[in-house]
Structure formats: structure tokens, C-alpha cells
Design a protein that fits this description.
The chain is an alpha+beta fold and about 350 residues long. The chain is built from 6 helices and 19 strands. The protein has 2 domains: about 160 residues, no CATH class; about 150 residues, no CATH class. Strand 11 and strand 12 form a beta hairpin.
């Protein structure tokens, strides 16, 4: 027994040594640098609740996202509400950024990493976080991002703290909404087609297209002002007109009083629901944009909560919408029928 003990002990030592060696991570510049990495903005994580303003500078556009009470908004868009699920990952992502490797401090080399000063000619982004003062708590020029570059699946982010010469390779995740509209819920109205009783589209010259269901629950809409002798064009579908305000998404939003609109050239689409809601969607084309604004009414008085919600989101605002969606709000009678109607 005694003669075998040293052999057994030696075997255990060899086994332990082999196990440690086999489980040790293969050295790499990225993983070794990441081990013990320092936060880029120490203490920012503990100060996130104090942040009240985010300033974004991208491709020549500079705008703010601000906190009012418990909610975030776009002051440049008339206080349009911002989704907190856009704000939270950005703030936390900034706080958790870790230094991996120092990079160039020569301005002539900044462009290689995308960390030069942002301008209309660059694709990079500056994010600045503010508390109560005008001086930012953290300000970062974010350049190239390489997904999954760093050990643990984190992105490699080339960036430079504003005002500092040294650039860095950082580890973390940053979701950067470049435009104001990227911070909001782009679906701004949703009137289900089954709620729609009648659609009346009035052109600037006074001509009309009226489609309606004969009864609630009926399968199809019908053109109500079909001229004598006229017929629907082959393949024309009337039902899609009722989906004009269904899951409608914006490309942008503006403050109504801040822009001049050629309202006399507007096409007015009136949507009437079975429960008395009346929504008038006004559309005009201006500067290669399709612009839309609304008037609301409740004939029955039974839609108080719906009207209140619609007023909160739509009043005083003009929406830019995609051209294909605008087509449903601007149809002419002549688009649907074969007989010349003179309208």
C-alpha cells in the first residue's frame, strides 16, 4: 500500500495540472485585453436616473431627446412621446462600455475608425448625456462597430470621448437611433377595417368617391356613387380603401403650426365608423413628401376614450407617410371605373 501511494498522488497532481491547462482559455489579444477592462465612463451607471437630456448629432442633424416627469419626448417634434425601450438600452449601453485597447490619437487617422468630428459628410454619431447642467455627463463620438468582435459576444466599438485626442476600441452594445423618428412608435393610428362603415374621398375640385358597406359584418364595400352606365375596372378591389387608416406608420412627424401647407390642394378622406366616429384625413404632396393631418368628430358621443387618445396623438401634428399608403387616401372615382364620369 505504501509503495503505491506516491504513484497515486503523482497521478492526481498530473490530472489536476492537465485539467487546469485544458480549461484555460487560449490567450488572445481581445480576451486578454478585455480581462480587467475599465469602464469608459466610471460612475455613469449610478447616475443614469439623473440623466434628463440626450443630444444626438448625426450626418449634420442635431436634436434632443428630453425627460419630462417620468416620460421621454422629442421637444423638436412638439413633445412627441419617445419609447422608453429606445432610451434604456442606449443609456445602459453607454454606462457599461469598457476600454479594450487604445487606438490612434492622431486626427489625420480618425477617419479610418470613424471617430472624426461628426458632420454632414460623415456617417458617425455623437451621443451626449446631460443631467441638470449644460455640461454633458458623458459625450462620445461613435465610429465603426464590429458585431461580436469581443469575447463574450460583445461588439467592438471604435469611439472617442468628445474633447479627447485618444480613440479607443471599446466592448459593449450600443443601439443608436440616428433620426428623431427612430425613437418613437412609428404606428400612429390604427382603425380596423371592420369598424369602417363608409369612406368618402373628396378631391380639391369637389369630385367624390364614396364606398360603403350595406350592413355591419358584410363582406364587401360597394361604390355608392357609381354613374349610370359605368362599371368597375377589371381587377379593381374596393375593400382596400377601408384599410387606409389601419396600422398606418409614419416616415416623420412635424409640428403643424411650424410648417406651411397648401391646404387648398388637400385630398380629404373621411372615415366613418359604425359607432359614430368620424376621422378626416387630409393629404397633400409637398417637397416630394406626402403629408397628412387630421380632424376628428364623434357623432354618437360614445367614443370619449377613443377620441381623447386620438386627440392626444394627432392634434397639432403633421405626419409624413409612404406614398403607397397615401394612395388609399387619395383615390378618385375614375381610378375605379371604366366609364368616363367627368369628375
Amino acid at each position: 500500500m505504501k509503495s503505491k501511494l506516491p504513484v497515486i498522488m503523482l497521478s492526481v497532481v498530473v490530472l489536476i495540472t492537465a485539467t487546469v491547462w485544458l480549461t484555460r482559455e487560449k490567450p488572445s489579444s481581445r480576451s486578454d485585453a478585455a480581462h480587467g477592462a475599465q469602464r469608459l465612463f466610471p460612475g455613469l451607471e449610478q447616475a443614469l436616473n439623473d440623466i434628463t437630456r440626450i443630444r444626438v448629432e448625426h450626418h449634420g442633424l442635431v436634436y434632443d431627446v428630453t425627460k419630462k416627469g417620468d416620460h421621454w419626448q422629442l421637444p423638436g417634434k412638439g413633445g412627441y412621446p419617445v419609447l422608453f425601450e429606445r432610451v434604456k438600452p442606449l443609456l445602459l449601453g453607454m454606462a457599461l462600455l469598457e476600454k479594450i485597447e487604445p487606438k490612434t490619437d492622431r486626427p489625420k487617422n480618425y477617419v479610418r475608425l470613424g471617430v472624426e468630428e461628426p458632420s454632414v459628410h460623415t456617417a458617425n454619431t455623437r451621443i451626449a448625456l446631460y443631467a441638470t447642467a449644460d455640461k454633458p455627463v458623458a459625450s462620445l463620438i461613435v465610429g465603426m462597430i464590429q458585431a461580436g468582435l469581443i469575447a463574450g459576444g460583445r461588439d467592438g466599438i471604435y469611439a472617442r470621448v468628445s474633447g479627447q485626442q485618444r480613440s479607443w476600441l471599446l466592448a459593449g452594445h450600443l443601439v443608436l437611433p440616428p433620426r428623431p423618428v427612430d425613437w418613437v412608435d412609428r404606428q400612429f393610428i390604427h382603425i380596423k377595417p371592420k369598424r369602417v362603415k363608409r369612406v368618402t374621398i373628396i378631391q380639391p375640385d369637389g369630385s367624390r368617391l364614396v364606398v360603403e358597406k350595406s350592413r355591419q359584418g358584410a363582406a364587401n364595400y360597394h361604390v355608392m356613387n357609381l354613374p349610370e352606365g359605368a362599371a368597375l375596372k377589371q381587377g379593381v378591389q374596393v375593400n382596400p380603401l377601408a384599410r387606409g387608416l389601419s396600422a398606418l406608420k409614419m416616415d416623420d412627424v412635424f409640428v403643424h403650426k411650424a410648417i406651411q401647407l397648401p391646404e387648398s390642394t388637400a385630398v380629404n378622406a373621411i372615415y366613418e365608423t359604425w359607432d359614430g366616429l368620424r376621422i378626416t384625413a387630409h393629404t397633400v404632396e409637398q417637397d416630394r413628401k406626402m403629408l397628412l393631418w387630421f380632424d376628428l368628430a364623434d357623432a354618437s358621443g360614445d367614443n370619449a376614450s377613443v377620441i381623447s387618445d386620438l386627440h392626444a396623438r394627432l392634434d397639432g401634428r403633421v405626419y409624413q407617410i409612404p406614398y403607397p399608403r397615401a394612395e388609399r387616401l387619395r383615390k378618385r372615382l375614375g381610378d375605379l371605373v371604366t366609364h368616363p364620369v367627368g369628375q
